[in-house]
Amino acid sequence: MDRDLTPAAFLGHGSPMNTLDDNRYTAAWRAFGESLVPRPRAVLVVSAHWYVNATAVTAMPSPRTIHDFFGFPEELFRFRYPAPGSPQLAAEVAGLLKPDWVGLDHEWGLDHGAWSVLAHVFPDAGIPAVQLSINAAKTIDEHFELGARLAPLRRRGVLVLASGDVVHNLRRIDFRRPDAAYDWAVRFDAAARDVMTKNPAAIADLEDHPDYALAVPTPEHFLPLAYIAGIAHAAGAPADVLVEGCSLGSISMTCYTVGASGPNANRIGAGAASLPDPRVVPSEDTNT
Questions:
Q1: Which one of 8, 50, 55, 174 is separated from 114 by 20 to 30 angstroms, measured CA to CA?
Q2: Cα 269 vs. chain centroid, distance in angstroms?
Q3: pTM check: above 0.90
Q4: CB 11 within 8 A of CB 163
Q5: Which residues partner with 103 through β-bridges?
Q6: 254 lies in a domain?
Q7: Measured distance CA(288)–CA(17) in Å, rounded
Q8: Looking at the domain assignment, is residue 250 inside a domain?
């Protein structure tokens, strides 16, 4: 492991309520953040919840906290993550991703895919945070290539943090399985783990997996994984599992790191936070 390189990570963020919860996944996120010595100079977040038809990066000095979900307790809507932005990092990202055009955005901010995990990784909100959008027009391979192009940020003291879920099917949520999953979700999560820990360059092959359609009915939560696969490939080393497991039948909470120190964070503890009562708001309408 090159100690001059800042690690990178993919965190399965699950429910936004994980922001306020203490469970084995949030404990793993906190442990990962505490392992980052020296602390990064900034963090670049690739979140499932900024999925648009362009590649853009937030370039404002003070990004707002975006509450982009429905049906959750008022406490979550009051949560703020006041990390500063970094116009300098935004410009670096745009430079590294050439010849692709990257828009410098001054309106978006930090969505819950970003701040729900940052609240545990950097609870003091003291690390400048920038978000990179996921371009809906690009393929898995193209997102993998963008991730590889971002690899030099690691030598510049920047943490690249991807936030999504390997398995994410809100129409198949099962509240009777709070810390477990359907067989198809377990199979696909295992297949993704096999790729990430052995041959990250094969990430696009998962699109041909027989359970892909159920596990990834829409691509936005899966695509952040391709960025960390690209960074792992650029490093010439596979990713490591930080913590693994599933929630509510059809959400994977499995997380990966590249170049991180410390042991696998799997441990006994509470499962991931849940979603609102489906009688109040259907799970697929929560924008989780």
A1: 174
A2: 21
A3: yes
A4: yes
A5: 56
A6: yes
A7: 10
A8: yes
Number of residues that this document lists for the chain? 288
How would you write 42-54 as a 3-class SS string? EEEEEEEEEEECC
Nearest C-alpha neighbor of 49 from the set 188, 173, 219? 219
Is the CB of residue 54 less than 8 Å from the CB of residue 22? Answer: no
* CA 71/CA 239 separation, integer angstroms: 35
| pLDDT 10s digits, 89-142 | 999 999 999 999 999 999 999 999 999 999 999 999 999 999 999 999 999 999
Range of the domain at 109: 8-285
Assess if residue 1 is contained within a domain.
no
Please report, for residues 63, 127, 160, 279, the alpha-carbon distance to residue 123 in angstroms, rounded to integers and kept in the order given.
Answer: 16, 10, 17, 33
Q: Look up the CATH number of the domain holding residue 35.
A: 3.40.830.10
- 209-222 pLDDT per residue, tens: 999 999 999 999 99
**Beta-carbon contacts of residue 143 (< 8 Å; ≥ 6 apart):** 134, 135, 223, 226, 227, 230
**C-alpha closest to that of 42 among 161, 159, 162:** 159
pLDDT tens-digit profile of 146-200? 999 999 999 999 999 999 999 999 999 999 999 999 999 999 999 999 999 999 9
Distance of CA 60 to the CA centre of its chain: 21
Look at residues 242, 288, 248 and name the one whose alpha carbon lies nearest to residue 113.
Answer: 288
Is residue 259 a contact partner of residue 7, using CB atoms and an 8 Å limit? yes
- Token pair 């955005």 is at which residue? 105
Number of domains in the chain: 1
CA distance 169 to 119: 24
How far is residue 219's CA from residue 213's CA, in Å, rounded to a whole number? Answer: 10
Position 244 in a domain: yes
| 159 phi, psi to nearest 5 deg | -85, 120
